[in-house]
């Protein structure tokens, strides 16, 4: 697929086929995330790969009951590694680590779509519950939960705000 085709075609998928996603594919997705830009090339982002059914059920509970999470064969938790970034950037480290993680997430979502996979970027969850579930250390922050699998739906493109409302030339 061409880059713009991938960008324009990607959708949030919440229904997945009962079909395994190979380890090699997951490694490719994480590699795509790793290739995203990062402040000072510190790559202040980490990824937890979840396949265990019971863990996915607990994660669903931490994500306010979004049951489609546990239906996905793979779930990836993206974590901003604030400690890694703050060593250099001090108080700005939290912002930069969050930006690093989110840039990686977008690469991952686009790569997944280009491979025929569906994903959904979930930001609605209890951070403390997710951190506790995975033993995520202090000075790190879970920023997204990403179910990954072969889509069992083809969502339509949601409406977009008109470009003239979003683009400001030279000043607001």
Describe the structure in your own words.
This protein is an alpha+beta fold and 172 residues long. It has a single domain (3-166), classed as NADH Oxidase (3-Layer(aba) Sandwich), CATH 3.40.109. It contains eight helices and four strands, in the order ααβααβααβαβα. It has helices at 3-9, 23-34, 53-62, 68-71, 82-89, 93-114, 127-134, 163-166; strands spanning 45-50, 74-80, 118-119, 141-149. A four-stranded antiparallel β-sheet has the order 1-2-4-3. Helix 2 (23-34) crosses helix 6, helix 3 (53-62) packs antiparallel against helix 7 and helix 5 (82-89) packs across helix 6. The mean pLDDT is 98.
Order of helical and strand elements: HHEHHEHHEHEH
Strand order of the largest sheet: 1-2-4-3
> Strand count, sense and closure of the main sheet?
4 strands, antiparallel
Spans of at least 5 consecutive residues with low confidence: none
Brief description of this entry?
The chain is built from eight helices and four strands; from the N terminus they run ααβααβααβαβα. It has 172 residues and is an alpha+beta fold. Strands 1-2-4-3 form a four-stranded antiparallel sheet.
Question: Which key terms come to mind for this protein?
Answer:
172 residues; alpha+beta; NADH Oxidase; 4-stranded antiparallel sheet; 4 strands
Blueprint (SSEs and pairs):
Layout: H1 3-9, H2 23-34, E1 45-50, H3 53-62, H4 68-71, E2 74-80, H5 82-89, H6 93-114, E3 118-119, H7 127-134, E4 141-149, H8 163-166
Antiparallel strand pairs: 1-2, 2-4, 3-4
Helix pairs in contact: 2-6, 3-7, 5-6
